[in-house]
Input
Amino acid sequence: MIREAAVLAIGALLSLAAWQDVKTREIDVKIFAAAAVPAAVLISLNWHSPLYLFSLAVGAVLALLTRLLGSGYADSLALALISTAPPLAFLPAPFIAVMAG
Output
């Protein structure tokens, strides 16, 4: 239940960031700082899974590449946050499968 709540918290905070980006063309760094808490919880709960670690690594590489290719920091942070979500009952595909699709 904690994993599901953390994933929903990340989703809500990313939705808030997207809304703020559309509204003001800037995203407050406090939103990403708040999203770091559920992301850290998810990482600590799923650290034992090799597929999860692979998903984190791919997310980090994609975030770094998007930043190096000129995207804004918000895009990179959003990719990194999305990669922290583990497979769940209501979202069964891991990050790799979602990005590949």
Q: What stands out?
A: The chain has one domain: 2-100. The mean pLDDT is 79. Residues 2-100 form one domain.
